[in-house]
Amino acid sequence: MAQIRYLNTMELEAGALRHLASGCASIGMRRPLLVTDAGVRAAGLVDRALKELGGVDNVAVFDATPSNPTEAAVREALAVARAHQCDGLIALGGGSSIDCAKGVSIAATHEGPLARYATIEGGSPLITERVWPLIAVPTTAGTGSEVARGAIVIVEDGRKLGFHSWHLMPRLAILDPDLTLGLPPSLTAATGMDAIAHCMEAFMAPAFNPPADGIALDGLERGWANIETATLEGGNVEARLQMMSASMQGGLAFQKGLGCVHSLSHSLGGVNPGLHHGTLNAMFLPAVIQFNAQAESVVRERRLERMAAAMGLGQMQSAEQAAHALGETIKAMNRQLGLPSGLAAMGVETGCFNRVIDGALADHCHKLNPRLASADDYRHMLHASM
Questions:
Q1: Do both 206 and 291 map to the same domain?
Q2: Phi/psi at 208 (nearest 5 deg)?
Q3: Which CATH number do you get for residue 349?
Q4: What average pLDDT does the structure give for the chain?
Q5: Domain of residue 139, CATH code
Q6: Is there a contact between 220 and 144 (Cβ–Cβ < 8 Å)?
Q7: pLDDT tens, 231-275?
Q8: Residue 344 and residue 349: Cα distance in Å, rounded?
Q9: Is residue 130 a contact partner of residue 83, using CB atoms and an 8 Å limit?
Q10: What angle do CA 78, 82, 83 make, to 5 degrees?
């Protein structure tokens, strides 16, 4: 067993779900709302969680979280919570369920539309300690939302916005690789590449944060070494544990910042909410890495060369050489994992590019990239990712 105290408390081990009831007790949560989705419920994981919560009175369940959480879903979940007089939240699922629960924790205690509290609207300081407490139980190994202070929600006007506050940090993260054993290969691959993208973008981000850099680089090494095994041998508990750690480490590291991969994937995901966030990150990584190869901080600190070494690609002589090797290796891994060959294979058409670019320029990750992208830069990255 490994209990880690970093930004929050994490229980990381096979069988960690057994800590759920004691976790509720430790934070005084007596009437939780369990936020999840229909797929997680169909997989039997809600029943497993409810069994562990046998000693907790009046557990309510909201199982209609969409693949990209919306303000409408947040309001629906809140109505269930209020009907059952809930006093806290358990998120069971992928990043969508965890982010939806974070949206509920805001809406339950703060007046007005969610957009008022969005980061790009200057709303972060308005999110207070009054938010409902949250326990996060991820069933995928990708988003890192269980150790993150942020959430992404599509608000009423259709924008896909970020919400960031230390008050949104889950009080407890229960990281149980057993919960990921039934995950289909395609979703294992997509969420795994999401974790890898988090580690890579956080490591490239220019902010000075050596602990986050160390966590990101180790997470990248673990994720890259195990994603293929976890995808092709879904019952391999050790590979699943390593991917869950890589996901958690990506979430810890991206407190430092992300960049253009996420500004693009957030925006395109808002334009077409049916697209999977992790898959989009996998598509954008090669083009963004190539763009970042000319960033002064990336070159000076040999960021790309160090990532290449962590991925077992050997010693690179320059950022440009590393960028090419990283991009080609990521594309090859995407093929090996059965992910799409590019945005076009996902049904994306060039006609939406102007909207995507506008959204990317306004995204909270845009200015965190090591090299500031223009509209033309984003257009080039989009075409290169087709």
A1: yes
A2: -85, 105
A3: 1.20.1090.10
A4: 93
A5: 3.40.50.1970
A6: no
A7: 999 999 999 999 999 999 999 998 889 999 999 999 999 899 889
A8: 7
A9: no
A10: 115
